[in-house]
Amino acid sequence: MAAPGTASSAASGFVLAAPEPADPRLAWERLDDAARGACYDNNAGVPDSAAQVAARNAASAAYRAAHPAGLDIPYAGAERTAFDIYPAADPGAPCLVFVHGGYWQRNARSDFACFAEGLNAAGWSVAMPGYTLAPEASLAGIVAEIGAALDWLAEHGAGHGLGGPIVLSGWSAGAQLAAMNLGHPAVTAGLAISGVYDLAPIRETYLNEKLHLTDAEIATLSPLRLPVVAKPMAIAYGSRELPALVHDARNLHARRAAAHARGALLPVPGADHFSILDAFRRPDGLLARAARDLLEGASR
């Protein structure tokens, strides 16, 4: 059998090496707490992360201010369970539902408004749901809230100008939430960006101080441990991401490909965990194009 992270072919006699750098989790038992945490610490892994976040938040505040009509629309009763909606002129246009990240315990939908810009310019609607953060909510509860947001869109979206097909997307922790809700009947296709798809290592890092992950959550909320949903889903990651995230993306795509589920693997050249979302800022950006390609593929 090939070593973890490699693929081999006895018939052809070749071995395809794992992507570099190697997955540090292959030596997980030898890593101390600091090294385990570093595998997932995107802020530390991107030297200018603070400046990128500040610029993102400022651009998002400006975009929200310029598009105030569809903000803060509740889909459930909790404080954060509301949508920011940026509708297209055509109520039948496709809609990207974008779920923000922050390791399920920080950030808000309002911080990501600027990433509606590219698809809005391409004639799409964009809807951004918020959700309750850990530790106030468990991860199971957060996954269920995104499902409730999609239920609300199915029932009420047309009344808010969102009558077209839905591509469900998410970044970082939001990618896990998107992958977990790909099977929702309102969703046509998915676009998962820079995600974490196996939760088991997370429980052994500083991130679990607020998440308090259970065995059941690891088994039932890790996309890499679940049956494949047959709908199309593209999986994107930056070429400068932390290795653990690169390998999770490649592993999830390989698992889906083995089940004959459609969807491209999209390494974004030169992108880190934060700059990757800039590919949503223009209609011709790689992520904006990927969303459009998903609907074209789903119709075939």
TrEMBL record:
<dbReference type="InterPro" id="IPR029058">
    <property type="entry name" value="AB_hydrolase_fold"/>
</dbReference>
<feature type="domain" description="BD-FAE-like">
    <location>
        <begin position="84"/>
        <end position="180"/>
    </location>
</feature>
<dbReference type="InterPro" id="IPR050300">
    <property type="entry name" value="GDXG_lipolytic_enzyme"/>
</dbReference>
<dbReference type="GO" id="GO:0016787">
    <property type="term" value="F:hydrolase activity"/>
</dbReference>
<dbReference type="InterPro" id="IPR049492">
    <property type="entry name" value="BD-FAE-like_dom"/>
</dbReference>
<protein>
    <submittedName>
        <fullName>Alpha/beta hydrolase</fullName>
    </submittedName>
</protein>
<dbReference type="Pfam" id="PF20434">
    <property type="entry name" value="BD-FAE"/>
</dbReference>
<keyword id="KW-0378">Hydrolase</keyword>
